[in-house]
Amino acid sequence: MPPDQLQGDPAELIDSLWKPIAAEQQALREAGEAMTHRLARLPHVSKRLRRLLGPLDGMVFDG
């Protein structure tokens, strides 16, 4: 997108512009169709998930 269209709160832009595109591309990929955009959601990848798994792994495996 041109920079002049990216004005405003970054979190709002991500939620309103990029997340729908990424979800659409993931759906296309899961359906076996060709993606129409380079932006794609990566399932099972999250910073929050990694922060949660560290302590959980320690509790489960280390006792």
Question: Please, could you describe this protein's structure?
Answer:
The protein is mostly helical. It has one domain. It contains 2 helices and no strands. The N and C termini lie far apart (50 Å).
Characteristics:
63 residues; mainly alpha; 2 helices
String of helices and strands: HH
Question: What is the average per-residue confidence, as pLDDT, rounded to a whole number?
Answer: 79
Helix content: 55-70%
Shape: flat
**Which class of secondary structure composition applies to the elements?**
mainly alpha
The major β-sheet equals:
none
**CA radius of gyration:** 17 Å
Distance between the termini: 50 Å
Task: Tell me the number of strands.
Answer: 0
Q: What's the number of structural domains?
A: 1
pLDDT under 50 segments (min length 5)?
none
The proportion of strand residues reads under 5%
Separate helix tally? 2
In short:
The protein has 63 residues and is mostly helical. The chain contains two helices and no strands.
Write the layout of secondary structure elements.
Layout: H1 10-30, H2 47-62
